[in-house]
Amino acid sequence: MNTNQKRIVNCKSVDVNQLMPLKYHWAWEHYINGCHNNWMPTEVPMQKDIEQWKSNFLTPDERLVLMRNLGFFSTAESLVGNNIVLAIFKFITNAEARQYLLRQAFEEAIHTHTFHYIVESLSLNSHEVFNMYHEINSIHKKDAFEMKLTEEMMQDGFSTSTTKGLQTFLKNLIGFYVIMEGIFFYSGFAMILSLQRQNKMTGIGEQFQYILRDESIHLNFGIDLINTLKEENPEIWTVSFQKEMQDMIEEAVLLEIAYAEDCLPRGTLGLNASLFHDYVGYIADRRLERIGLKKRYFKASPFPWMSECIDLEKEKNFFETRVTQYQSSSALVW
Ligand SMILES: [Fe+2]
Ligand SMILES: [Fe+2]
């Protein structure tokens, strides 16, 4: 097998079961990094969260922040998992990239599991949490935006053999990796980590830190995948397609700001919706640049504590103690 003949999509000369020799070392590295981050939501003690939730420790506004974010994340995680399995996986013709997708799909299942565990621990109304994406307009709009991208690729006869088909595929990758996991998750991360910083619902805060750590790798894999797809198929990255992607990201920014407004109708925790105009713009600019599009918002982050390095390699130190702790969390017992 000639490694150089491996291609991310539409590969005709190397079969997809031949992992080695590797061509896309980045995909393998993301896979190994993901495997080093094993964790289970049920390992996080919830007693303090339960006490705080059941007493009047949180204000109604703080409870709303928590509930809306549980509502969004509980189903968003499965949308991402489903998109990998139903839309992305079959069109990726490379073994090392598929290896990563298998790992990521498992992590998305762990993330969905987290919300099951939180609902059970706090005795929340599961219907209310898991049905919120049908009930709350700003959540519904973000999810509908994503589900449309999955459906486009599930149409009968969809194929990546044409320029148009490949552009639809790339749009799906940008919609999920850059927008869903790279923008739509970040207001929620900032809100829940704000609660945690004030010693509120710290078990959930810790679970969100684990999710954020996983999502940082998902985002970085997605960006490598997107940029490789562009390099191998330069004909799809036309000026008009770039404009379409730029517009799509700008539309997503508005959806995300509307979501933040819905979570923070009055402002709480030192947070208010106007800070999220800046934060979402700041995040979006960083994503735009990484896929070769122009910055648009030029905002400073209002949450420097979110750590500028949170989705970069430096982030590893931040989590170092836990990474070690979870590296081999369970031994075999017969
Ligand atoms: Fe996730
Ligand atoms: Fe993810």
From TrEMBL:
Q: Out of the domains of life, which is the source?
A: Bacteria
The record lists the membrane-crossing segments as 174-195
Catalytic activities? a 2'-deoxyribonucleoside 5'-diphosphate + [thioredoxin]-disulfide + H2O = a ribonucleoside 5'-diphosphate + [thioredoxin]-dithiol
> CDD domains given for it?
RNRR2
Question: Under the GO molecular function aspect, what terms does this record hold?
Answer: metal ion binding; ribonucleoside-diphosphate reductase activity, thioredoxin disulfide as acceptor
Any Gene Ontology biological process: deoxyribonucleotide biosynthetic process
Keyword Aminoacyl-tRNA synthetase recorded: no
* Cofactor dependency: Fe cation
Give the EC number: 1.17.4.1
Transmembrane listed as a keyword: yes
Q: Which residues bind Fe cation 1?
A: E77, E108, H111
What is the cofactor note? Binds 2 iron ions per subunit.
- Keywords linked to the UniProt accession: Deoxyribonucleotide synthesis, Iron, Membrane, Metal-binding, Oxidoreductase, Transmembrane, Transmembrane helix
Q: Can you tell me which residues bind Fe cation 2?
A: E108, E181, E215, H218
The entry sums up its family as follows:
Belongs to the ribonucleoside diphosphate reductase small chain family.
Q: What does this protein do?
A: Provides the precursors necessary for DNA synthesis. Catalyzes the biosynthesis of deoxyribonucleotides from the corresponding ribonucleotides.
Q: Which PANTHER family match?
A: RIBONUCLEOSIDE-DIPHOSPHATE REDUCTASE SMALL CHAIN, RIBONUCLEOSIDE-DIPHOSPHATE REDUCTASE SUBUNIT M2
What is the protein named?
Ribonucleoside-diphosphate reductase subunit beta
UniProt source species: Candidatus Criblamydia sequanensis CRIB-18
Whichever gene encodes this chain, its name is nrdB
